[in-house]
Amino acid sequence: MSGSPQAVGLAWANWCWKAVRQFLQQRFDIALGRTACIDWLHRLDFVRKRPGKRLLKADAEKRTAFVAEYQRVRCEAAVSGAKIFFVDEAHFRADVDVRQMWTQRGLPAWVDSSSPRLGEKATYYSAVCLETGETEAMPVAQTCTAETTVAFLQQLRDHYTEPLIIIWDNGPAHRGPELRTWLTTPNLHVRLVPLPAYSPDFNADEAVWDWVREEATANICFGAKNKVQEAVDAFFTRLTCRADEVTHRCRTLLQSRAEELQISQPMHHVDPITVSL
């Protein structure tokens, strides 16, 4: 039972007491009830976990190379005074985002939903700096495009005087003529660093979105886009006083691997860079 139910010929997505009962009956001709099957799961040291997603299309070599590149970027930023931001976008529907919740034993867990239409959703850009715990957010009226991306990057540029290094994925909104034109602005001092493909686990801003869903939108049916936006805006306002929590919570596998690399291959000297494109 170390693999999935499918590995032993069962048509179940996950191990549960019914899958255990079927397995025992087919393999050993033993019929057990619900309580006995759950007891066997515990005896075999099974616990319930929310699984992570293993990204099979991710290129391991490119991810390893990016860890080294990120470590170089951090060293360069320390010398040049640049600020590194991880950037991403997310959508928040007005309907219920069902998450685990506390409820009294024996009572069902229900949340009400008015089934708002799919168009009732709030779309946001966000950025997080792990070195300082600073965050930035911007709502988007419709969908994310190269034009809205430029607007958000300009917001970052207006709010921070340091050279900026933007780390993000290669999504459709992160390229286009509007962005290329903006990048020709004199003295812009913005450098874009693309993440390797299929590597959301390297993007610290993904943790911000999960945090929003956990703390601001979980198990609530807002009914309308403006109500969702009020909740998300309030969340980002609260983050301004939680910098230490941001730096701790938004760390990813990328930071851990980069620090391991720094220990094994210390960089004694880094030349200053001009942070621009």
Describe the protein.
- With 277 residues, the protein is α/β, with parallel strands linked by helices.
- Helices cover 40% and strands 13% of the residues.
- The chain has nine helices and five strands; from the N terminus they run αααβββαβαβαααα.
- The chain has helices spanning 17-28, 34-43, 60-80, 146-159, 177-182, 205-217, 225-239, 243-249, 253-264; strands at residues 83-93, 121-128, 135-140, 164-168, 190-194.
- A five-stranded mixed β-sheet has the order 3-2-1-4-5, sandwiched between helices.
- Helix 5 (177-182) links the parallel strand 4 and strand 5.
- Helix 1 packs across helix 2 (34-43) and helix 3 packs across helix 9 (253-264).
- The longest helix has 21 residues, at 60-80.
- The chain is globular.
- The model is unreliable at 268-277 (pLDDT under 50).
Provide a concise account of the structure shown.
The chain is of the alpha/beta class and about 280 residues long.
Low-confidence regions: 268-277
Largest sheet, described in full?
5 strands, mixed
Rg from alpha-carbon coordinates: 23 Å
Number of helices: 9
Topology:
Layout: H1 17-28, H2 34-43, H3 60-80, E1 83-93, E2 121-128, E3 135-140, H4 146-159, E4 164-168, H5 177-182, E5 190-194, H6 205-217, H7 225-239, H8 243-249, H9 253-264
Parallel strand pairs: 1-4, 4-5
Antiparallel strand pairs: 1-2, 2-3
Helix pairs in contact: 1-2, 3-9, 6-7
Top keywords for this entry?
40% helix; alpha/beta; 277 residues; 5-stranded mixed sheet
